[in-house]
Structure formats: structure tokens, C-alpha cells
Amino acid sequence: MTFGEQNSLPQSLRLLDQAFDAGINFFDSAEMYGVPHASSQTHSGFSAFFWLFMFIFYLVKYRYPVPQRAETQGKSEEYFGQWVRKRKISRDRVVIATKVAGPSGQMSWIRDGPKCLDAKNITEAVDGSLKRLQMDHIDLYQIHWPDRSRHFKVLHSCVSSYVPMFGETEYDPVRQFSSVPIEEQLDSLGSAVDAGKIRYIGLSNETPYGVMKFLHFAENNVRYPKIISVQVVCAFMVKSNMPSVSLICIGGADKLIFFRIHIACSAELLILEWLSAVIMRGTL
After folding, report:
1. Closest among 245, 241, 267 to 258, alpha carbons compared
2. Total-model pTM
């Protein structure tokens, strides 16, 4: 997650060596990583102070890694690809996951600032990740955070509700933005699957509502790929979606795989989370 920012290439290669030697073969990356993202174009004293404050806030509260910059964006994927080639590791010995960045007005260095997850952005993101990884396919491709449209007409314009994330508990109508339907996102991802660029798709930072909507659309259209994983923000103090998302996964929603990778979590905590969801469901 911090390769290229706080970890140099030699350090990154050593870390990957140690993980692989310990039996780890699943590696998760993204075209960007970390919140907030300090732009290299930030110069004013106030902006610098603001980004420093936000960095410390997120680091303390959510345990997010060192934020990437324009100069280091994509290095995580690049370093992993270099490791596979330098160590001459057979492609079938590793499972590679990465993510497409969602809407953001701050990360202008990623596709000129991704405005939405339309077909153009998803296609460019997939191709960009493959190029940085120097590979012909990605095993698991995930939507990093929601770009979900709940459309209604207002003065002939399409408006959608943003999705509260990262510990937010209340919906802020001021942050509404135009978006694209889930069906279009699934169609674009399906095209990448058909082209052999990715094998499976997943979600990240999603809500239970979003997970079920993606499953619903895929169930009713054979053209759309089904999600197989959900990766959620997980911190000791921010777990508002954990029981309900766990319940979806345990309930057998298309054999959904559930990842908790944002913190070092013990087996005991995983078991307790599973049991709490089972108890809520009423069955063992």
C-alpha cells in the first residue's frame, strides 16, 4: 500500500520476498492508495497545514497509510510487477487484486481526476493497471469506493446521492454528485472480463445496500459479472457496516468472500465478528 511513498523499491522487494516465503500468495494493490491524497501542486501555507492535519487525523482514527502523491501514484502496482519479474515467479503462483479509483476532484493526476466510473474511466484504469503490473490479466478487480447512482430528474439534469464512507454516519445532501448507473459499471467490467483482462470483480468500501444492488443487477442479467468479494474499511472504532455486511456474506449471497485487510486483525476478532452476525441471523 505504501510502496513508492514510504517504501523504496529494494524495501518493497524484501517485504514481498518475506511474505511469499511465509506462504502468502494473495496480493492486493490499487491504482492509488491512502487518504487524504496530498497533491504535489499544494503550495500555500494553509493548504499544507490542512493536508498535514488531515493526514494525522486519518492516520490516528482510521490507520490509513502514508498518502501517495502524483509522483508516486501507481508505484505500488509497478513495484509488485517488478518483483514478479525479477524473482521469475510463475503467474499462476500468485493471485493479484487491484482497484479502480472512484470519483474524486482532488486526484487530478489520475485520468485528469476521475469524475465517474463510466466505461471510459474503467477501461483506462484496467489498461493502466495492466501496464504498470506488466501482466496480461488481473485476478480480482475491485471498485475502490462507490460511484452509485440513485437517479431522479431535477430540471432535466441527472442527480445522484453520494455514499457516506470512512466513518461518516450522516448523509450530507450538499455532497450530491452526478454519476453513472450500477448497470453501466457492471457492463464495463463485464467487457473487461470478456476480453480476458480481469477474471473476477469485487467491491471495496461498500454499504450493505450497495452490495445487494450489485448482486441484484448481476442476477437479472447474464451479461453482468457477479461480485465475489467485499473489502470494507475496518478499524476498532469504525465498524458501522461490519455486522450487516458480515450477515450478507454468511447468508450465502453468491458465495461472497469477505476480506478484512485494513488492520491487522486476530483470528479471535474474526470469529467474534462471524458469531455476532450468525446470532443476528438467528442460526448456527
Report:
1. 245
2. 0.72
Per the structure block, which three cell numbers stand in for 98?
Answer: 487491484
Per-residue model confidence as pLDDT tens digits over 237-259: 455 555 556 555 655 544 455 54
Catalytic residues: 33
Residue 216 confidence class, pLDDT cut points 50, 70, 90: very high
DSSP SS3 for 219: helix
- pLDDT for 195: 98
Q: Identify residue 213 by its one-letter amino acid code.
A: K
The H-or-E segment that residue 230 falls in is strand 227-231
Please give the domain boundaries of the chain with CATH numbers for all domains: 9-281 (3.20.20.100)
Among 226, 231, 224, 201, smallest CA distance to 212 is for: 226
Do the strands 257-259 and 138-143 form a parallel or antiparallel pair, or are they unpaired?
Answer: unpaired
Instruction: Return the sign of the alpha-carbon dihedral for residues 216, 98, 237, 174.
Output: negative
**Crossing angle (nearest 10°) for helices 119-133 and 75-86:** 40
Alpha helices in the chain (DSSP H): 9-21, 45-62, 75-86, 119-133, 182-194, 208-219, 242-250, 267-281
CB 138 within 8 A of CB 97: yes
